[in-house]
Design a protein that fits this description.
5-stranded mixed sheet; globular; 21% strand; alpha/beta; 161 residues
């Protein structure tokens, strides 16, 4: 998938003004947060994992880490990230720019509850030089996820419930 397809989707939904493109790289949480001028946890990183014959994309708050036990409980397999080559082949996006919208057949999209800590989150838009400002509801509408999950570790220092 290219950023052009994302631009078309955003235009269809009246959200074109939410897209930010940069000359600088947004391929990591830190770089994206710097370009967008936001807290790194607001970056909606899309993590790509092997899952059966396809992949599962977990969109999570930027500073969160996958909890292997929670992942295995949710998906029934060990969390094994796609290689750079497989990321592009399977998701249609290069690593550092994986977009949770318009996922190809065989790729499930899941939104992690860690995103709900923020009013606005910023997923990549199909390139390693982009970000889209969205509410969690807008992200859910655009990504058409399989569902919400809870597969990340809590923030360090956060109160445990």
């Amino acid at each position: 998938m290219t950023i052009e397809k994302v631009k078309q989707l955003l235009a269809e939904r009246g959200l074109s003004d939410r897209l930010h493109e940069f000359e600088a790289s947004t391929a990591t949480v830190e770089l994206a947060a710097e370009c967008l001028g936001v807290d790194p946890d607001q970056i909606a990183k899309t993590l790509s994992f092997y899952y059966g014959d396809g992949a599962v994309l977990v969109v999570a708050a930027g500073t969160r880490r996958i909890d292997n036990h929670k992942f295995k409980t949710q998906f029934g397999c060990k969390a094994r990230m796609l290689s750079r080559e497989d990321t592009e082949r399977i998701t249609g996006n290069a690593a550092g720019g994986v977009c949770p919208f318009l996922a190809p057949e065989g790729v499930q999209v899941w939104l992690d509850v860690s995103l709900r800590d923020h009013e606005t989150v910023y997923p990549a838009a199909g390139s390693a030089h982009s970000g889209v400002a969205l509410s969690c509801q807008e992200l859910e509408e655009l990504s058409d996820p399989t569902g919400w999950c809870d597969v990340c570790k809590p923030l360090e220092g956060a109160a445990q419930l």
